[in-house]
Amino acid sequence: MKLFLIFCFSVLFPYLVWPQSEGLSTAYGAKSQGMGGVKLFHPDSWTLFNSIGNLDRVSSSQVAVGIDQRFGIKELSTYALSHVFHQTKGSLGYGISRYGGELFNQHLLSLGGATTKGILSFGAKAEWMQTRIEGFGTGNAFLLSLGGVAELGPKFFLGSQISNLTQARISKNSSISLPTSILLGLKYLASPEVEIHSEVEKELSTPPLFKAGVQYKLGEWLLLRTGMQSNPARINFGLGIRKSSFGADYAYGQTSALGRSHHMSLYLEF
């Protein structure tokens, strides 16, 4: 049995690492997922994972929990929690996520902070990732990321982020590197009800990933979303409910080659 596991991981390991290499570059929270995975400009608790430069644009302290279930496979699910503390001179946040099943799983612990000076918000975060593979052991990695968001006018925002500046490997005894990526994006407020987001993300060893999403505010408490991305091509839909200090989001994603994904998240403001 152990030889069989070794064979499977030797063949499939690059593909098993990819989803949570997404874990460093994936979009957390059903709001982002419902808009095709865009993540630079959402001022909510998930921005700790998604866009550390946007953290200080969260208007209040928040806590959020979420689950991503990919392609109906339990072993490809992600569970996450994020908590942001908003202060006058800046904001701090911490979060934790778990991806995988019994044979292969990864835990990510994030701690970051951000502040705002004029039109520019910028931040930094440190992350610790633990990877466990049945029959192979456990590896640990330490990562650093930087990001920023600039308000170019009342309707335009420009953002960027560099993830894994340290080019950390999956463990000190491994030659497999965790992804280092650069993310650039633009947000346009077409009206008080309509937001349009576009982003391009480039990892060092993979082709660029293009993403675009739209959010439409329908009334005081209902939000409708859609988005798409390339490589692999997929289209997403979502909706959100906002009521006082409570919010709930759901997203549905379809990838032609792999199937359906469901994403749900909840948050509470303080």
How would you describe what is shown here?
The chain is mainly beta. It has a single domain, classed as Outer membrane protein transport protein (OMPP1/FadL/TodX) (Porin, Beta Barrel), CATH 2.40.160.60. 12% of the residues lie in helices and 55% in strands. The chain is built from three helices and 14 strands. It has helices at 2-25, 30-34, 47-50; strands spanning 62-70, 78-87, 90-100, 104-117, 120-133, 137-151, 156-163, 181-189, 194-203, 209-218, 222-229, 234-243, 246-255, 259-269. The chain has a 14-stranded antiparallel barrel with strand order 1-2-3-4-5-6-7-8-9-10-11-12-13-14. A hairpin with a 3-residue loop joins strand 10 (209-218) and strand 11. The longest helix has 24 residues, at 2-25. The protein is globular. The relative contact order is 0.18.
Mean pLDDT: 86
Number of helical regions: 3
Q: Could you give me the name of the CATH homologous superfamily?
A: Outer membrane protein transport protein (OMPP1/FadL/TodX)
Structural class: mainly beta
- Say how many strands there are: 14
Compute the CA-based radius of gyration.
18 Å
Name a few traits of the molecule.
14-stranded antiparallel barrel; 3 helices; mainly beta; Porin; 12% helix
Can I get a quick summary?
The chain is built from three helices and 14 strands. It is mainly beta and 270 residues long. It has a single domain (2-269), classed as Outer membrane protein transport protein (OMPP1/FadL/TodX) (Porin, Beta Barrel).
